[in-house]
């Protein structure tokens, strides 16, 4: 006989799949793109990314995209863009959807065209506003600012979506503390599904001075279950590897930048729901190095404040931690240990007694 | 449950079409885009997009290792749907390996839709009107709501109750409803059929699809090509709400379709002679999921008859664990719908109360309404307060299970009441039997289960029953 059991009656209440919001952070660092000029010029990359954005929009009626440019001086919105000339709303929020009257070209799905026009137009404006002096000033990119912009947009969209659908604040909004012991992956089916894709061209050392804000953004993503996907066209950025590793995103360093579109379509298009069924390209050898808090150098081995866990590449002055101000006893660091005599002793002991006498675990003796 | 989101009706209809029809349909980028978006499960979308810009066919083995081992079922389901819709084709590449590729008119149309480099007016032609002439979104919503409620009201028979006098249903609408066996005319009186009951309780987007499919099916009878009508429907679904579109480029058949659809409130035109038309929300959300609709239409359909689309997603029904039901509505249509399965008690200007009882549910089931329809009706129209309350409660109790808006006791009881009557379920399909050995039986049986067509099996009798036989038969042939 047909039984009404507990598993069955939840099926119909399962909602339709929630839409997903894709935020693309495009690294527009002119220095790095100049190096890529021969294999993949920026214009071609933009064309590929636009097709990718359209493909994302095509997957679901309610899917959304956002594009942030991480330029060398600032991070700027490419889409949706706040229009300066339009008066802001009564609640102080500026309208995020400036749609200009567009003539001509009618044979295109309208949402696609709006995204395309805005992205190209805003990018052009951004490039025109960049002076030679700006470029000479620095050769890094404002990744931290772009990540923060993307995160605040995602947060805003999630809250707006949850409000519009009357429920699921727990899953969508960041303001509700996560429930008990439930792991985040269980609740991911609800709410707006957001993810971030970073198309990165700049190298690692350039962004070391933004180490702290980048890591903070990464931890925020980790907490909100927002995967950060990284598509690396050139160079290899330490922190971005950590970003995709910590947030369970996809990290790909493209061997052939010309095939950008195919990489995007295959590896980066599937959303969180589809990813459950797919085997994703991930990285095994993640570079976990950190940057020091004093000189922003990427360090292999450093000093860690025992109180606040700040990292330093060399002992801070007077032994005072630069972050929390605690006075740290350095001991006699730097003094050469007089180990020569001891070593002999040790050897004797090893011969005589068991290994337990040695204070530090020694490598297993060879054959 | 990947298929749960897709209403099966348009899918079934499409599937029954011959391959040549697909060839014609896929010539239009808008059709390719709409089918891609609406008919495919998530995984199938990933496959299509991954293959779309590949020059050479992708060896099947490569595609198969892309999917996790525990998701075999989803993979085969996705591949099977793609095959049935003639999107994916199997080819042989060198050294006899099987490979997949996207079939051609579909691939090129979808690429055109994404990049927009072509000449056809597949996505409609905007007409430029001065602002004073154009219709606002609120007006269009109001029009769509009035027309659609008029259609439903005609079916349920509220037309006599004194509302909706202003809606004049054309003869075509009434004929279509009759042809679809949603209503019957007896002694010049309109009587709703069992199918009709099932229809009125469905979600608006499902209803619209149902009507459109009826329309497409009847197109051949009134001298229009169903392919043309179908691709026009998909074109409508890709238009933008609040914009007016030019009629100049439409064929006479498309104009005729337009006039017919205007009666349902799917498109709006001042009169058949004007040069512009507006798609309403009913049209533009055709390719969305019902939740993405965020129910402005169904919300305003159900809400107070003021017609102003207030807050999006406003439901109006509160149901308690003791089966009492409160509905904040004064719409005669909604009241008569609720009365189908509820014993009503009081009626106030903006509120009715009632109770769901065994008797009332049985009465509804005798009329041909199913428990699932009642539950989904209640769930889609649940009051925001109920959503909030139940979500906060159920996430704390059972993490991992999607929160149910309705009290579980009520949904279970409605189902149990149905089971009291409903003891036999018929499924049309095909029986495979007389396998020689157990091993010969097992492989196709497992295959059928993986592609999601298996209904019943008996290892002892070496028989299994499937809803579709083509692929299983092909599988059996390939093993010989």
UniProtKB/TrEMBL annotation, chain A:
InterPro entries: TFIIH_Tfb4/GTF2H3, vWFA_dom_sf. Gene3D superfamilies: von Willebrand factor, type A domain (3.40.50.410). Coiled coil: none annotated. Component of the 7-subunit TFIIH core complex composed of XPB/SSL2, XPD/RAD3, SSL1, TFB1, TFB2, TFB4 and TFB5, which is active in NER. The core complex associates with the 3-subunit CTD-kinase module TFIIK composed of CCL1, KIN28 and TFB3 to form the 10-subunit holoenzyme (holo-TFIIH) active in transcription. GO terms for molecular function: zinc ion binding. It is found in: Nucleus. Belongs to the TFB4 family. This is General transcription and DNA repair factor IIH subunit TFB4. Component of the general transcription and DNA repair factor IIH (TFIIH) core complex, which is involved in general and transcription-coupled nucleotide excision repair (NER) of damaged DNA and, when complexed to TFIIK, in RNA transcription by RNA polymerase II. In NER, TFIIH acts by opening DNA around the lesion to allow the excision of the damaged oligonucleotide and its replacement by a new DNA fragment. In transcription, TFIIH has an essential role in transcription initiation. One of its GO terms (cellular component) is transcription factor TFIIH core complex. Residues 344-367 are annotated as: Disordered. Pfam families: Tfb4.
TrEMBL record, chain B:
It comes from the Eukaryota. The keyword GTP-binding does not apply. Residues 412-477 form the Transcription factor Tfb2 C-terminal domain. GO terms for molecular function: ATPase activator activity; double-stranded DNA binding. The keyword Transcription applies. One of its GO terms (biological process) is transcription by RNA polymerase II. Belongs to the TFB2 family. NCBIfam families: tfb2. This is RNA polymerase II transcription factor B subunit 2. It comes from Aspergillus avenaceus.
